[in-house]
């Protein structure tokens, strides 16, 4: 451990009102936990590799699969504009690949069908992420910007005046994330980890849940309509109750 790291530990221990020796032991425990979690993650990725490969081929037959999955995450959905949705509706494949030497490093590849936004050379967009070890079980991710070739006037990362869109103006600012320096797309790391740790491993579950919720909404809508119709009938009956049947005129025999 460097002198700088030791100084930081001492400062943090003092702020937390924890004895320095105890804090150092806790820091070691955090590093050990991170190492174990890394081994578990590596083992999981290796075991699931063939399973994900089979899933990848099958879901290509479902045109809206990956777009539906992306929308299930509130952390991602908040960045998806109406225009983004038009492009993401053409998403044909989303693939995550972990580095063999360091499983904390990974790449995310988005593949699109031909569309009105992207040039043919950008129908496949790959984003590489490198994990930086900050010590004490802490990490951060950095990445190089991915160059996107947009068709004329269709750049979703710029506004109508040609100026760069703010962080929350488009999902596609994700591809500009670097993890370093001011002015960077701050949510890039969180979005990448949401995709790799939550959505990608459990994509089938999210897709099924999304469609189940949609079916439930349709059913609830039908019940609401039926209930409204029943209420209208009851109100009509209360407002104007049917008059009693008119007495029949007596026949000659009854007279």
From TrEMBL:
Entry's Gene Ontology cellular component terms: nucleus
Recorded superkingdom: Eukaryota
InterPro entries documented for this protein: NAP-like_sf (IPR037231), NAP_family (IPR002164)
Annotated coiled-coil segments of the chain: none
Biased composition regions of type Basic and acidic residues, renumbered to the chain: 241-255
One BP term from GO: nucleosome assembly
Region of interest called Disordered, as start-end residue ranges on this chain: 215-255
Positions with biased composition (Acidic residues): 215-240
Pfam families cross-referenced by the UniProt entry: NAP
Protein family: Belongs to the nucleosome assembly protein (NAP) family.
Protein name stated in the entry: ARAD1B22330p
